[in-house]
C-alpha cells in the first residue's frame, strides 16, 4: 500500500505508478492517460479541497476500482473517456460525508467490436448532510454484440440534496454521420471523427491534445 | 447541371415525393416553395442521399452523371453543398478538424500555415470571430452562428451547387441580409448555381430566383418566374393554388 498527499498538485499516473491511497488538499488534479493497467485507488478529499481525476484508457482487459470520500465543501470531478477493445470494468464509489459537497461523474466511451463494458457508479450521500450535489452520467456508443452494463446507483440518506443520474448505450448518431458525410468525409472517417469527439468532449484541452495524438493510429 | 426525373422518395415507409421533375441550369437560381409538409426538405435529403430517405424510383443527374443513391460524401465531393435548416451539432469535433479532413478528401493539399491563413481570410470575409475555427461544430451556437458556420465551410470547400434549406430559419433580418449578400458575392465570383428551399418569400427579396417552382404533395404543381413568388406573398399558398398545410417539414 502506497500513500500520497496531494496539496494543490498535479499527479500524472504512469505505468509504473504504484499509488493506492491518496489524501487531497487544495485544488489537485490526477491524470491517468492511456496507462491501461488495473487500478485500485482510495482517495480522501479533505474539507474545502477539489480533485479533478481525468482517466483515459484504450483498454484491452482492465479493471478499475475507485473509492472516494468527500468532506465539507469539497468537490470531486471524474472524467473518464474510454475505448474498450476488450473487457473494461469500472467501479466508482463516491461517498459524500460532509455538507455542500459536489460530485460530478462523467463517463464517455466507445465499446469496440470485441469489447464489453461494465460500469458501476455508486454514489452515497450521508444522513444529516446539507447542500450536496451528486451527478452520475455515462454514455456509451456500442459497436459490439456483447452485453454492456451501466449502473448508476444512488443512495441518498438526507432530504436536502440535488442528485441527477443518466446512462445511455446507443449507436453512432446518424444525423452527425450524415452531416460529416455531406461535407465530403467517408463513412469510416466520419465515424472515427464522431467517436473520438464523443469520448474527448469531457476532457480538458491539454488532455484532449495528448489523447488525439494517441488516437492518430487508431 | 442538375436534372431530377420522375423522382419518388419515401421516409419510414411513407411516400413523400411522388414523380418530381426538376431541371436546373448552370449559374441559375431556383426557388422551390411550398407549404409545410409538402416535401421540400425531402428533395434536399434525396439529392444528398440521406439514408433516412429511400429513393423508390426516378433519377438524379449532376453534370451528366447519375448520382442517385451515390454515397453522400461522393455527392459532396462532386460539388454539391447543402446548408441544412438546423445544422447538426457535433461535440468534440472542431471546424478546423472537419475542414482539414474535407479539403484533404477533395485532394486540396495545404500546409497548416496555408490552411490557417485561408481560414482566417474566410472569417474576415464573413465577419466572424476567428475563434469559430477552433469551436466544436455548431455546438452551443445560436441559429445565426450555425448558419454562418455553414457559410464558412462553403467558402472553404468551394461548391458549384448550393442547396439552401430554409436558410432564413433562425436568422434575424440583419443576419439574413448579411448571409444573402455573402451568397450573392460567392455566386458572382464563382458562377455557382443555387436551389433555395423556402416556404415564404423573405429570402427571395435578397437572392432573386430565375425560376420559382411550387411543390404540393410531393409534386411540382406550378412553375414560373419571380412573379410567382410575389403571387404567393400576396395570396398565400392556399389562396394562390387552393392548397393547405399538411404537416411539418423535417
Blueprint (SSEs and pairs):
The complex is a heterodimer of chains A (218) and B (250).
Chain A (H helix, E strand, L loop, with lengths): L2 E5 L2 E3 L8 E5 L1 E7 L5 E7 L4 E21 L4 E22 L5 E10 L4 E10 L6 E11 L6 E8 L4 E10 L3 H8 L5 H14 L4 H11 L3
Parallel strand pairs in A: 1-3, 2-4, 3-5, 4-6, 5-6, 6-7, 7-8, 7-9, 8-10, 9-11, 10-12
Helix pairs in contact in A: 1-2
Chain B lengths: L1 E10 L2 E11 L4 E5 L6 H8 L5 E10 L2 E2 L5 H6 L2 E4 L6 E5 H11 L6 H14 L10 E2 L5 H15 L3 E5 L7 H18 L2 E6 L12 E6 L2 E6 L1 H16 L9
Parallel strand pairs in B: 3-10, 3-11, 6-9, 9-10
Antiparallel strand pairs in B: 1-2, 1-4, 4-5, 7-8, 11-12
Helix pairs in contact in B: 3-5, 5-6
Describe the structure.
- The complex is a heterodimer of chains A (about 220) and B (about 250).
- Chain A has about 220 residues and is of the alpha/beta class.
- Chain A has one domain (about 5-170).
- Chain A has three helices and twelve strands.
- In chain A, strands 1, 2, 3, 4, 5, 6, 7, 8, 9, 10, 11 and 12 form a twelve-stranded parallel beta sheet that branches.
- The mean pLDDT of chain A is about 95.
- In chain B, about 35% of the residues lie in helices and about 30% in strands.
- In chain B, a hairpin with a 2-residue loop joins strand 11 and strand 12 (about 220-225).
- In chain B, helix 3 (about 95-105) packs parallel to helix 5 and helix 5 runs parallel beside helix 6 (about 175-190).
- Chain B is globular, with a radius of gyration of 18 Å.
